[in-house]
């Protein structure tokens, strides 16, 4: 018996969510005193790196291009499983329900915790459009966990692993054309530094200074839910309980009051810096560093200071 984990790659490279999936599987496997088997694409040049995060065995194969095709491959490869882990990326969220149907398993989607209890298996997951959290029990012999990226975090469990190339048939019912769009921006879920702003900026026309600060820090830009709801920024920048969850080394919140729904999406950040004119803003209670001041004065000074510092290096 083993915990199986599908490890997604992007053009042959792993991201944080890839390693987080293996970490999740290792934590689960440790509670069962069993092994971790990682399933991943054969185009990845260094699949053995998954051993650093807890994989005992890595099986590589040519991945189908559709979620249903991959689900068929997983069904063929996964034998004697104690459970299956899939990261809730856009692709993962299409694979998990298809695999669940094919394997007659029990799926916990939108999962936000590692197993709370093992027998019976219980986990926490987002409910009511992630406005609430519920604890559910998976009683199937094939429990499948599809977790929210950045909800668990990457953890290292150095393990000696073997890598084996294999084959699995998957029926790609659709013709898939891959189009790569070079935006030049850092993907928000993968960012080590995030600069986020809220309604304190008073309008979308003032976002230039946020992008300037992000540029000098090599950061991704983000926003609060009200900002994306009123159309100042795209929804894919919305951070919070109902948006993207992040776990950067540095999260800078500018003009965001700190509603509990927003804090739920950034609580895993290593260091939080808050800039707000209101010294009573709730976000300050969660901050490691706080600046009480006008963002229109503070941010340009930060940008100028950082640019000068980098120029001297």
Q: Please trace the helix and strand order, writing H or E for each element.
A: EHEEHEHEEEEEEHEHEHEHEH
Which second-level CATH architecture of the largest domain applies? 3-Layer(aba) Sandwich
Number of strands: 14
Quaternary status: single chain
CA-atom Rg in angstroms: 21 Å
How would you state the average pLDDT, rounded? 92
- The shape is elongated
Taking the alpha carbons of the first and last residues, their distance comes to: 54 Å
CATH class of the largest domain: Alpha Beta
Can you tell me the residue ranges where pLDDT is under 50 for at least 5 consecutive residues? none
Largest sheet: 7 strands, parallel
Could you name the key traits of this structure?
Rossmann fold; seven-stranded parallel beta sheet; alpha/beta; five-stranded parallel beta sheet; 313 residues
């Amino acid at each position: 018996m083993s915990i199986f984990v599908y490890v997604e790659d992007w053009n042959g490279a792993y991201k944080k969510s890839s390693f987080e999936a293996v970490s999740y599987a290792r934590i689960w496997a440790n509670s069962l005193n069993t092994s971790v088997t990682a399933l991943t694409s054969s185009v990845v040049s260094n699949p053995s790196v998954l051993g650093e995060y807890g994989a005992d065995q890595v099986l590589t194969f040519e991945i189908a291009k559709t979620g249903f095709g991959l689900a068929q491959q997983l069904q063929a490869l996964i034998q004697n499983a104690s459970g299956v882990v899939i990261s809730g990326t856009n692709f993962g969220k299409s694979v998990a329900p298809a695999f669940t149907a094919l394997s007659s398993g029990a799926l916990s989607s939108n999962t936000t915790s590692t197993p709370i209890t093992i027998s019976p298996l219980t986990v926490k997951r987002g409910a009511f459009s992630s406005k609430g959290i519920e604890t559910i029990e998976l009683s199937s012999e094939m429990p499948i966990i599809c977790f929210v990226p950045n909800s668990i975090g990457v953890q290292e469990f150095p393990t000696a692993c073997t890598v084996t190339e294999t084959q699995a048939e998957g029926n790609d019912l659709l013709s898939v054309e891959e189009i790569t769009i070079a935006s030049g921006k850092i993907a928000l879920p993968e960012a080590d530094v995030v600069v986020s702003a809220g309604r304190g900026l008073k309008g979308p026309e003032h976002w230039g200074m946020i992008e300037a600060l992000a540029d000098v820090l090599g950061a991704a830009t983000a926003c609060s839910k009200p900002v994306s709801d009123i159309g100042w920024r795209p929804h894919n920048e919305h951070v919070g309980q109902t948006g993207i969850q992040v776990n950067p080394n540095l999260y800078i919140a500018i003009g965001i009051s700190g509603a509990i729904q927003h804090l739920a999406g950034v609580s895993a950040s290593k260091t939080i810096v808050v800039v707000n004119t209101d010294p009573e803003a709730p976000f300050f209670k969660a901050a490691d560093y706080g600046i009480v001041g006008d963002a229109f004065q503070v941010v340009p000074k930060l940008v100028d200071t950082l640019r000068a510092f980098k120029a001297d290096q």
